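Appendix B. One record, verbatim.
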Amino acid sequence: MTADTYRSPSAAELASTAAVTAVTIAAGLGMGRLFAGSSYLVPFVLAALVGHGLSWWGRRRAMSLAATAAATTAALTLVAIWVVLPDTTTYGVPGTGTAEAALRELRQARGLFAEVVAPAPVTDGFLLAGMAGVGMVAFLADWAAFRLESLFEVLLPSFFVVVFTAFLGGGRNRTVPVLLYLLTVAVFLLVHPNWLQRSSLPWLAGRSAGELGWRLQSGLILCGAALLAGALVGSGLAGEEGPSDLWRGRSGERQTTVSPLVDIRGRLVSQTDNEVFSVRSDVRSYWRLTSLDTFDGQIWSSDAQHAAVAGRLPPDPGGEPPGDRVTQEFTIESLSSPWLPAAYRPKRVEGVRGLRYNDQLGSLVGDERTDRGLTYRVVSSLPRLRAEDLRRAGAPVDSPPELVGFTRLPTVAPRVRQLASQVTAFSSSPYEKALALQSFFRQGFTYDLSARPGHDGRALEAFLFRERRGYCEQFAGAFAVMARSVGLPTRVAVGFTSGELGADGRYHVRGLNAHAWPEVYLAGSGWVAFEPTPGRGAPGASYTGVPEAQASPDNPTTATTAAPASTIPPTPTTVPVPAEDAAAPTAESNPEKDSALGRLAKAIPVLAVLALAPAVVPLAKRARRRRRRSQATTAHDRVLVAWTEAAESLAQAGAPRRADETLSEHAARAISATGLPAPAAAAVTALAGAATAASYQAGPVEGGMATTASAAASEVEEALKDSASRPERLRRALDPRPLRSR
């Protein structure tokens, strides 16, 4: 709609605005498949409402497209800041600190995107980027719907969001988002043509009733098809687990963990001082969430079955050493995690509904999300581990068969395995091998939050042989890979360091306390934690020879540590580190490449549909023209069909009919706008007169008038085609907008 034809919104326009807004909201809500939490809901809905609301306001004020875009961008920016970064403003007014915080969060989100696999944490950076994306979808959809007066083009922005979400979200939670999106699309396709009809090519003189019936019939068919397609697509794409097997579902009780290391990195890099939870405990401990047992060459994850328990937990497989019973009382503030923090090893849990436990990973989940206000009690048995006992322990020959999975590795660069063998060459027991690896990482490596993320083969080699700097997830992941390569059953634990003891007698754990560390299975002692990260040390872990240490608001974000003072006789770990290999890459398996090929394979069906779409549009146009002409059985109908086809060609050439124009006025303006030659100009003028006469004259239309009208329409179409360039002809051929008319 242009400024010179602006008018107050009608009921049809308001209904169309509401329908297209619902489509955008449905696409935005569908992005929930990408996130582990639900805190994205309100921001994304607000972004959709602001985008469509400002676009509607701009149309009411007859503002230009550029002015509306500027106003919408400003409003979206303010809303995003107020929702995501309110602490950086002064009474709601953004400042330089706001811009710096936003850029920092967006850079962090870009780094996470390179490695994240859904469900990802809802970080501030993802919220800012997501709100910008939803707002852009809203603006583009409104532009296409009401300024370009289109139908199918309106759905393209939200469709690409849905496709993007489908690729990244995998098979989780597909049914409801697909159904919701298709239903809103069906409603839009039913409602919006009623508004378009006020400026569309007319079906005059007694045709309105039939047209309304046709639209209602088509709308009912679309709604039914949307429901059927949603049910089929949703159930067909949901995978083995199906739509009900969500992480909170009770049917399969399976908790698929796509690396919480991503959330750990987000908390660390942001160095947030916000309290995550507090715990009252007699002793300090690492508060453990879960552990990761699977490394696919790119990221650590787990796919674990959690069994329902009544409160008392089963013993760990393979036995446990003697321990001290410790009681903890947790109060969650802002964790937003499926796992319950606890000191390892938990024995009893009270105050959690639907409690479930996995003894292989040592992780607890419940029916309640760990959001603000959740309080529960845990009794744990903290093992009393001594270096001399661990040193005497041999290989776990009688360990459970499940431990086999904790030594599996994908293809690893030979020099990584060689380095692990060199580091542990002087070690005579599994404990000494683990200790040697720990000492290796604590000498000459630097703790650095600005290090690039990633765990794949290239990132691992860069970390070990070139950069030698990173944060806890790199240290824990690299330790686990090297430990497994020398035969040690190893997993990566994720949780938090102990936090700061407050005056209230509780340990207050903040985002900056997020941590990851490796655990090695040692016969007779079970899973034993080690600490390869410089500047960190677990409480009560004297067997590691590492003093207790953790991050605090006053500590720097980087630290370089030399070999720690230790009460344990040192294990020789001086190993020559191979220089960066300058040779050409070998033909080894590249997990990154394999993953890219896998994603491409999944994308082929969608790409094929998109590739075939250009061929479908011209065929659909031809079929529609044949159907329309075959239904025009009288001279009256043939005249109106001829005008409709000519007017469609004029609209594609840039001269659509305006709402306040008669057919003759439209013809006169189109002649000037398109530069039609004299014969074609005379033909369109005569055709407009014939269509007007056919619409209003009382008697029947003569057959000669219908023949002349058809010839005039053909002459106009040919003239417009001859005057267009090749790219313009292609664009018109692929333009689906004429398909919106009957």
